Amino acid sequence: MPPRKASKAAKPPGGASAASGFEASPEALATAARAAGELWWWDASERRWRTRDACVSPGAGAKTALKDTNWTPWHSLCDTSEAPYFKWFAGAETNACFNACDRHVLDGRGNEVALTALPEEITELTPRVNITRRELLGAVATVAARLRDEHGVRAFDRVLFHMPTDVTHCVYMLACQRLGAAYSATAVDAAEDVLVSRIEDLHPKLVVAAPGGATKHAGVAVDCAAKARRAAMSAAGASVSPPAFLEAERDFEHLRLSCRLNRWAAMSDAQAFAEANAHMAFLSDITDPIVKKAPKKKTGGVPACVAATPVPSDHPLFVSYTSGSTGKPKGIVHGHGGYVSGVLETMRSVFECVSGEGGDGVAGGILTVGSSGWITGQSYMLMGPLLAATRSVLMLGSPVFPSPLRAFETIEKEKITVFKSGSAVVRQLMTDPANAARLDAVRKRTESHLRVATFCAEPVSAEVHAYAQSHVTKNFINSYWATEHGAMVFSRDVSKTIAATQFEPDTKTYPLPWVRCLINDQSDVVLAAPYPSLALTVFGDAARCGDGVLNAKLPWRGDLRKFQDSYWPTGAGGFVQGDVARKHAPRSAADGNAKTKTKTNAKRAGPRNAPTASVLPGYTFHGRSDEVINVNGNRVGTEQIERCLWDVRVGAWRVRDCAVVGAPDFVKGDAPVAFVAFRKDTSAEKPPEPSNGAAPKRRRGVRGSTAPERNEGAAERKVSPDAIDVAAFKAAAAAAVTARVGAYAAPDHVFVVEALPKTITNKTSRKTLQLLLAGESASDASLVRRETLPPIAAMVSEWRKTGATTNARLDLAKYWDEYTFSHHVVQGRPIVPGAGWLCMLAAETDSRKLADVAFMRGVHSADADVRVTKRRKALQATVGDEVVLRAVVAAGAAAPHTVGPTTFGGAADARGGAATETTISSSASKRKREPEKPSSRKRSREDAKKTNVTVTEEATAAQHYRRCDALRLEYAGAYRAVAGVEWSGHVFRAEVTGTHLAAVLDAGLQVACAAVRAATFIPVAVKEFHLAEAPADWTAGARNTCAVHGEIVEQHADYLVADLRYERVVESSKNVAEKRASGSRKTGKTGNASVTKNKTGDWETFAAMGRVRFARVEGTKPRLQPEQRRPKNESAQHGRAQTLDPATSLARLRQLTPEQRVEAVRAVVRSVVLDLTDQEVDFDKTTFDNGMHSLNAVELLSRVNDTLGTGVTTKLLVADAPMASFAEAVAAHATTYEAPPLNGDGKNAVPFPNVDYATLNELVRRRLAGKTVGQTPYFFLAKYFAYNWFKKAFQFFRIGGHAFVLNPPRAVDLGVEVSMDRRVEFRDIDMNQHYTVEMIVARSVDGVEQLMARSGLSHVELYYKRNLFAAKIQSTFHKELALGDRYFIKTKITKVTGSLMDIRVAFLDENEVLCFEILWTILIVLDSTERVLLDWENVDLMEGKRLRAGPGKSRVEAPATPKKPKKTTDDDDDDDAR
Q1: Helices 423-430 and 434-446 sit at what angle, rounded to 10 degrees?
Q2: What span, in angstroms and rounded, lies between the C-alpha atoms of 1155 and 1041?
Q3: Mind spelling out the 3-state secondary structure of 1290-1353?
């Protein structure tokens, strides 16, 4: 029907008034008329289906065009005479199944794919399924005939489904629609009690379930059939007739066979439509309330079909149940007319879906994350897409299994154009920052086809909305609706197209044009006028459902009184759902030129239309005003959970009072939290059970909650929370809630309280509990008993530290100023120090004890957007998508006195005990000590000085900070807090004068960072952190002076581990004792002092850090006092720290500016030269002038590469260039260097990729051709062979020289490992009959020679006629070898850098145990006069030259390190005299 005609004909009766909210708005009427013009209606007078311009008769296969466009099948577009029962299209007949299936085949769309089903894991047994619209029509018509003929299902009957939302389930639901039977569906994870309550409420004629073993959810098999059978048996009783039971087909392949879908696939659309509609059935044919089974028609083996039954527009279509906010879930009834038109209109206007979208089964369509058990699945998985002729993609099972990104990967694979999902899916992904990069990769491949995405009907936070728009699609919108609404009522601003709208992550929604709304005084959303998809009624009066409609005397209206009382309160002015919302002012006209542009952009915007934001007033939704919480997208009434808790007992204790409240949870949305008060029932006898088997009566509580009746004869006593086994109650409560509601509704936490906070009207103040759970302060002004609030607040506060899941923005700017982070500079940039993070976390979590703190990334600006996510005890701080910190809120009280060295330098402790010897491996010895009293850990400096402490090093404040500045640890202001440091071996004590806590804590870290000369360490992890008081309450003590006691408990080349304890001076012990005695007289308790007295004051421990790990940033050779040896019984993994690998170092180096990059390289060169030559580098001098001979120069390259990952070669080390040029060349090389490729194992594809293999292999080729550039005098060779012929001949064969001559290698292979076995001979031993070191070194030459021959390096020697030269030999003894022992020599190259090559020769016994190893560092001198060495990284073939052997003439070596002469007394006197 044209909208013009419809609006004119659809004037509502005068009984409805706008004040009541019963009068339909003109916009709703126009929308209904527009949607109705696309639907097909039954023309009863002509007994045919028709629309405004076409008709088709039963049994025909083609439609006939009509000229009568004024035909109207209804007498009123919206009949409000029985409001709030609204009859849209009153007097018209239609069928939802006909509009969803038949009409598209009639339009020639039979070959289009209607549904695509995707199992959790696609295999040959569980394949991806496509079903066309023609096949779908055949399956629905066949199954409908089977339900009618074999199970007696007719119009007005109810059918209950317990199946996964797959193709089979969709077919069965559509078959019920075809027959006019109402149905209801349940999710596969619904509890058995839910099925029982549905059966008791609906009185279904048939229960259809998936066969056992056919359903999987999250990889776990679910036996739907067994659960449904048990529920049917439990519900059967006097008031409920046992329903029939049917197991549906196991999968689509069985459905295809049973419905002969191959036959339907081969038909034409006209044939399929004609056969599906050949046999009509009408409501008027049903006259006998008891219908016998109709005989099956013999069709020659072809399954029978049934046509769609025309039904009134308000005929019950399906019943979808709410979450149960009033105690029992309500069955919401939707009809064939208004609901169908409303859902269709949202598909067209909100999603801009067009007919045929996704019809090829490959690209396009809608993906909805949901289930047919909820309204989302009914409206936007089934009906909406089918009505709009858009493909619907069904994800079977869990949307996050087998991958949490399953839904988004499906968007990519199926080229989805519309996506609809709950916010829980996005919130789950936000818990892992790595998911952002994965989503971004998917988004790049989906942004070309994903037109729009929307959240389902639940409150969404701005950060979740922003995350979805950033990582899924910029067109991710928010929507609002509920079961009662039938379809979306708030969504995007549809006055503009999607392409013409710039969507903001503000969670705003906009009422759709046919929705008239307002906000009342309680901030509830009020829908001030009906609209087509709004619910008809609440299901009820099941016994008369159908008969009243047939007789037309008492029409069935369900439980209309309940519907009105629940949603249409008197004086409210409309439909009240109970959701709290806020209306936001619209944008100014200047922002968008609102009305003029929106009207002209009614069609899809072209490329000239730049997207603009909406200028209409937006609404944000903030949860339910009633007692409903949203747990992972499941809306559940708290009263449902409370009813389960009333029946739970723990021993003799039973529930006296309880309240369930939703706690904010970043992942779940709301987490159910129970507050329970108990009483002890001392009655000897159990109360008698009712004789009729009914449940015991319960008194009505506040806001619909129920509680057991008081037993006046039983003694009731309040119970202390400590007397209850909370764990046992929580387990029993979880089991009860899981069985009756679902596992998702089980309480996350249970608080045992003495009494709940009550108002003056004896109502539980749930708002007070909600405020406490949200971390806000709650007033006790409205409470009858104010004393109930403090203990509850204390329990909730403690739980929030370790049990809640939160996500909040850290006010870094506030802490940046408070703790002066700009004065803490590392590597040239201010950075939040580790001590600062500890202070901020302690303040934000109100915790005094943290564990497993890991500093992942640096934060360098006060403007950084830092968010702290806490999930139970785990903390995670992120900046954007990067994790910068992880930590754990530890349970228990802080105990800082238990951490750190017992005494300074191993001397006697404060109690005057004997001195004990300490070693560097004190971390192991501390575990063996008996626990000491706190006072033994708290000593004064004066007592420490009395002991025999050997101070090995002292540093003043100036010396300490000079060392820090040299390491580029640049502290200023409050962070120059160290007044002096004393070292005794591996233990130190530092005096600290700090103005705030972060600076004092950082002072101890500073000392450990600078403990190793010429190497910078930074803190990367803290195993445990203790703080005696809140950061805001901290003071520096009586003398404004603190002390840090530290101990290096582990030292390694790449990291250190230290313990730190912080002390301060407090009031004298006399004053403390007087105050303690005064306090004990008042409280009746004795105090416990944790101080140690001395002459200057009493010291107390206020903070400690245990096992702090420091990672090395520069250098490779620490210089700390004694080196620690790992205890034998300690795990190899113990103490492993995070270190900066070369790749990470190179990445960070590239992030610096060119000037900073050069300075970073200079810092590394400075530390390496200082370590190698013991003198400061002069960058204006050359390498050799800085005391660096050839080997040191190569070592410099090696360390620079290891530290910075730059991959520099000897080309950059020019002999006559200053070191400044070298630093600049390395900095420039770092920007272009690409690391060599790795193989599948993460190793280099070729060994030592820095080696010039191409030139080496060219050298081998030339050598095999007889070429050489070296020359040795013949008289020398003759004398050499004459003298060594006997020894060299044996060695030649022993090392395989003959094999080299007969079959020389054709290429150089530096990855080869060679082995030979020998026995210790008599001439190899000394008088002890032990293998001598002299002979071992001699035998190692055999290994080196053998390696040279096998690897092809002998070609190099012969080409240049130069032998290898041993620049350095290092030997290590592990085990003795004696006369006759058999051993193996294994040789391999371990390192190649510049001119140096390291060859390791290992001597192993018969059991492969290492006995001795020798590391040869070799090189080849090509020209000793010109100081030319063979550079393995840049091989020179010396073409056109003749190399002569001989000693170098006038060679200049690198200058030696100048030594400072010691001044004698006489020299001093002479100086004084001068």
Answers
A1: 130
A2: 40
A3: HHHHHCCHHHHHHCCCCCCCCCCEEEEEEECCHHHECCCCEECHHHHHHHHHHHHHHHHHHHCH
β-partners of residue 1104 are 1026, 1061
How far apart CA 35 and CA 341 sit, in angstroms, is 5
Answer yes or no: are the C-beta atoms of 84 and 560 closer than 8 Å. yes
Distance CA 1010, CA 976 (A): 14
Give the angle 64-67-68 at the CA atoms, nearest 5°. 110
Per-residue pLDDT at 1145 exceeds 90: no
Report strand pairing: 215-217 vs 537-538.
Answer: unpaired
With tokens 């149905």, the residue in question is: 183
- Size (the chain), residues: 1474
156-160, 552-556, 1038-1042, 1249-1253: segment of lowest average pLDDT: 552-556
State percent of the chain over pLDDT 70: 75
Tokens found for residue 1196: 């410099």
CB 102 within 8 A of CB 109: no
- Across the range 1392-1399, mean pLDDT stands at 85
Binning pLDDT at 50, 70 and 90, where does residue 427 land?
A: confident
Closest among 13, 21, 58 to 40, alpha carbons compared: 58
List helix spans (H) across 819-921. 834-845
Task: State the Cα torsion 549-553-557-562 to the nearest 10°.
Answer: -150
For the beta carbon of residue 1138, count every other beta carbon within 10 angstroms: 15
Residue 819 in this model has a pLDDT that exceeds 70: yes
Give, in order, the Cα–Cα distances in Å from 617 to each of 330, 493, 510, 590, 1192: 32, 10, 7, 15, 74
Which residue, among 541, 547, 545, 542, has the nearest Cα to 289 in the 3D structure? Answer: 547
Q: What is the rounded average pLDDT of the residues 2-25?
A: 53
User: Is the predicted pLDDT of residue 1297 greater than 60, yes or no?
Assistant: yes
Question: CA angle 582-586-591, nearest 5°?
Answer: 150
Q: Which pLDDT tens digit goes with each residue over 262-320?
A: 999 999 999 999 999 987 776 656 544 434 444 444 445 678 899 999 999 999 999 99
Confidence tier at 352 by pLDDT (50, 70, 90):
very high
Give strand pairing partners of 1057: 1050, 1109
**What gap in Å lies between CA 746 and CA 771, rounded to an integer?**
21
Mean pLDDT for the stretch of residues 70-80: 91
Angle between helices 224-235 and 192-202 (to 10 degrees): 50
Sign of CA dihedral 738, 741, 746, 752: negative
Q: How far apart are CA 136 and CA 261, in angstroms?
A: 8
611-617-619-620 Cα dihedral, nearest 10 degrees: 60
Question: Given 3-state DSSP classes, what are the helix, strand and coil percentages for the chain, each rounded to the nearest 5?
Answer: 35, 25, 45
The better pLDDT of the pair 161, 236 is held by: 161
State whether residue 583 is helix, strand or coil.
strand
Backbone dihedral region for residue 838 (phi beyond 0: left; psi -120 to 50: alpha; all else: beta): alpha
* Cβ atoms of 1271 and 1444 closer than 8 Å: yes
- Mean pLDDT over the full length of the chain: 78
1412: nearest Cα among 1432, 1455, 1383: 1383
**Alpha carbon of 56 to those of 94, 845, 1037, 1169, 1304: distances in Å?**
14, 70, 94, 95, 91
Residue 1183 confidence (pLDDT): 77
Pair of tokens at residue 1130: 């300690």
Q: Which CA distances in Å does 333 have to 161, 557, 558, 565, 1378?
A: 16, 10, 8, 16, 95
